[in-house]
Amino acid sequence: MLRIALSTAILFSSAASAQRSPRASALPPPLEREIPTFESLHVAATESLSRNPAPAESQPDATWLGAATTRINGGILGGAATTPRRIRLSSQAAGDSCSGSDLPKDWKLEDGLACVSRQPAMLLEKDLLDGVVQAPKHKDFQTIAGAGGRGSILYLDYASAGTADATEFLQGLLWGEDLQPSTAHPEILVRAGKVLVIVSFPADSPVGDWVCTRLRQRFGLRIPRFEELSAQLGPAMEACLTQDVEAGLKFLRAHASEFEGSSFAAHLEGELCAKKKDWTGSGRAYRRAFELDRTTDPLPADPIALECVSGLGDALFFQQRFQDAALTLRDAARLAADLSLEEKQASLLYNCACSFSRGGKSDEALAALEESLVLDPARKAAARRDADLAALRERPEFKKLVQ
Fold first, then answer.
1. What is the mean pLDDT of residues 273-298?
2. How many other CB atoms are there within 10 angstroms of residue 261's CB atom?
3. Are 47 and 31 in contact (CB under 8 A)?
4. Is the CB of residue 316 less than 8 Å from the CB of residue 324?
5. What are the residues whose beta carbons fall under 8 Å from the beta carbon of 357, sequence distance 6 or more?
6. What span, in angstroms and rounded, lies between the C-alpha atoms of 332 and 311?
7. What is the Cα–Cα distance from 215 to 54, expressed in whole angstroms?
8. Which of 2, 116, 262, 333 is the most buried (most CB within 10 A)?
9. Does residue 224 contact residue 144 with C-beta atoms inside 8 Å?
10. CA angle 245, 335, 229 (to 5 degrees)
11. Phi, psi of 106 (to 5 degrees)
């Protein structure tokens, strides 16, 4: 088994990725969350979406394991997977017609676009980027003015196949070579299924802070907030980076009541426990992180959610719960694919194959291995030697795959 995960540097930059060592995964059976649709994904309720309403067939796919969805096919949390239940993300129905009535007092919705940078406005200008990036099927915006500033939220509805490519392009368009927000370009880009949301408010604007908090709490969007988390969890984050496992765990346990509701604190505990090969502790922490993420406290980035999934898989593998590990790794691979993390996807599929093989599921192992090797043929040499795949070596299909 080849263990790979995103670098701990992800704590400071949600775009970072790097290699680590072997893991496996078997997820909780989370409740299915309703993905915010283009119609309902608005910070404040509006009378209508007359600018560019989306037809019913544009509803996001409810099987995506990402920003606002938590259905894990076959995940395990203390028993067999349960039948998914739908839950409403907001106390407000998508059809509310109260035009800003849910804004704080003296705040208001305005008609004109009010982005901090010129770049977001380009996305709403017809044909300006045609031929450069796939055009969204529908687009809309809201401008909010209140005490402490004004700005806009853009909503771009893409076909599922185009969202990842659009995300990569928009990072460069919005932020330039740095690929992260700055004072001059403070825009935040976050994904909700097939919809990309751009939040454009001045840095440190209380209106912008309110918008981000509302998007997190109402729709479960994973919005980066690393400065806030660094202030709260700095010693644990530093411990992850410096491999000072005991210091990090000591800090988290000393503040356990304070961080009880923090998904990111639970994620850090999972990382630290994994570093000391405490697989029971890491599995428990990753489960808690994922549970908080899907209910009350969204994680700060999709790649970190992926780490929780794959980390749980590792813990299950090393506890020799191979079937659970294989199912979780397969789900993690789907999320990696949706995030366009092809190397990570190939690794997770490879580890899924190892888990199926160790659990006596040779046919499933061969299927996962084939998917992995299509993505990364360089893994063939490792597969020929890997003891976790020993049960497959006499199968003709295996010999053909690794030749």
1. 94
2. 12
3. no
4. yes
5. 365, 388, 389, 390, 391, 392
6. 10
7. 20
8. 333
9. no
10. 40
11. 75, 5
Q: Write the single-letter amino acid at 314.
A: D
Which tokens in the block code for residue 44? 């404040």
What is the token pair recorded at 311? 């980390």
pLDDT of 89 above 60: no
pTM: 0.76
Average pLDDT over residues 179-203: 88
Whose tokens are 């046919």? That residue is 363
Average pLDDT over residues 338-355: 94
The amino acid occupying position 103 is L
The SS3 assignment for 393 reads coil
What domains are defined for the chain? 8-28+227-402 (1.25.40.10), 43-61+89-220 (no CATH)
CB 155 within 8 A of CB 166: no
- What are 264's two structure tokens? 């990111």
For residues 311 and 27, the answer to whether their CB atoms sit within 8 Å is no
**Sequence-separated (6 or more) residues with CB below 8 Å from residue 272:** 236, 239, 240, 245, 248, 249, 252
3-state secondary structure of 368: helix
| Contact present, 100 and 42 (Cβ < 8 Å) | no
Across 97-167, the runs of DSSP E, i.e. the strands, are 108-110, 138-146, 149-157
